[in-house]
Amino acid sequence: MKHQFSKISSVETIAAPMPCITQLIQDKIDEFERMGSEDAFCVGDMGDVIKKFNTWKELLPRVEPFYAVKCNSDNVVLKTLADLGAGFDCASKGEISQVMKLGVEASRIIYANPCKQKSFVKYAAKHQVEMMTFDNEAELIKVREIFPHAKLVLRILPIAQVKVQCQLGNKFGCHPNNVHKLLQRAKELGVDVMGISFHVGSGVGEAKAFAFAVKQAYDAWQIATELGFKMTLLDIGGGFPGQSNAPITFTEIAAVVNEALDTYFPHDDSVRIIAEPGRYMVASAFTLAVNIIAKRSITPDVPDVDGNTPQAASHMYYVNDGVYGSFNCIMYDHAHPEPRVISDSPDRFVSSIWGPTCDGLDCIVHECKLPELEVGQWMYFSDMGAYTIAAGSTFNGMPRPRCFYICSDDLWNQVHPEHRAPKRRCESLSADADYPLLMTGPDMLTLREAANSISCCND
Ligand code: PLP
């Protein structure tokens, strides 16, 4: 049976995902139903990641992106970005090891966690990952002891009050009033400070945050130079939006960043400028499909647990991924995932959507309007690539969703000219679909291996 995806009245403002993704998910669902599978799954569009990277290069030509691995550490994402020439922002030994296993050299890694475990610093030293951030004296002492030749980057605290999805300044960053003292201490300790970094906050809502922070970085840079440090690196951190309905566009931010850089760090070959984008690269690339595993219909006039009596019929849908899994973004990233469903019905009912665990906190959407759905039907969520799968648990024994990857021929070939995409169609796709490449398998290590192992395609 062919289903049609419909918009939901309460979330009609969401931009439709690429038709290709919609069709692919529909085809995948049909395939799953034929196989008798109801497991949640996600589709990662590596073409979207490549396009984001290309746009970055075009709009921020002076800034090298060091992808923040924490945002989504999917190996296929990392390999795609590595092949594109990106650098990586790693927060731990595990992330450093993961990107190095993909062949990324130490010079393309910044260990951007100002508070590091000693053994992780040892690991960085062993693998010559020299660039690392700090924002306090104890960290300076620790690094000097373990890795005296580390190239240190002072993370400052941007003090401008701007709207952000997730604050980071409550935890990290040296206040401008303390910069001189901390750098003075670094001088006494004899460590090599060579850069300034900041993070304006994840999912920034106002471009001016970058203008203020670049000016602050300039001030700190002057202090460091006066103290005799040879400063060569400016790291403007993350915060760039990645989802289709972000309050501000990347283009707007890029214009402000470029102007600030040209003002405070005019073109100079001795200054390297990097950034640590996370959500920008991956948010829109992933779409998550979940199956309705259970349903409860609420009849009017029966009081709920709080004693409130609903006026109209409503439905509670239980799906097989939740806030302990990919939807942890609701808790940790203040996200508001918006459902799309498969239905031709014009009727809408008040509905709520719940995750699969036994916890009452496990609610994905408290209230929205949906057509009536039945157990076994599917819904899907776009923009699920950032801070989702990466922090998902298997609480209550619930599995993580399996991921399928796609990439259009032209973009794939741009990254891998030596390994052109096979001009074949995957048998799992409908006859009229034209997906040049479908890669499957959670264990896949490299895109090249993935391409070599596409065995499900018809000639
Ligand atoms: N860099 C650091 C040090 C971070 O802590 C984070 C996110 O927490 C990022 C980069 C990525 O931020 P975003 O996803 O907003 O680009």
From TrEMBL:
Gene3D superfamilies: Alanine racemase, Lyase, Ornithine Decarboxylase, Chain A, domain 1. GO terms for molecular function: ornithine decarboxylase activity. One of its GO terms (biological process) is putrescine biosynthetic process from arginine, via ornithine. InterPro entries: Ala_racemase/Decarboxylase_C, De-COase2_CS, De-COase2_N, De-COase2_pyr-phos_BS, Orn/DAP/Arg_de-COase, Orn_de-COase, PLP-binding_barrel. It catalyses: L-ornithine + H(+) = putrescine + CO2. It comes from the Eukaryota. Keywords: Lyase, Polyamine biosynthesis, Pyridoxal phosphate. Its EC number is 4.1.1.17. Residues 47-283 form the Orn/DAP/Arg decarboxylase 2 N-terminal domain. It is an enzyme of class 4 (lyase). Pathway: Amine and polyamine biosynthesis; putrescine biosynthesis via L-ornithine pathway; putrescine from L-ornithine: step 1/1. Homodimer. Only the dimer is catalytically active, as the active sites are constructed of residues from both monomers. Catalyzes the first and rate-limiting step of polyamine biosynthesis that converts ornithine into putrescine, which is the precursor for the polyamines, spermidine and spermine. Polyamines are essential for cell proliferation and are implicated in cellular processes, ranging from DNA replication to apoptosis. PANTHER family: ARGININE/DIAMINOPIMELATE/ORNITHINE DECARBOXYLASE (PTHR11482), ORNITHINE DECARBOXYLASE 1-RELATED (PTHR11482:SF6). This is ornithine decarboxylase.
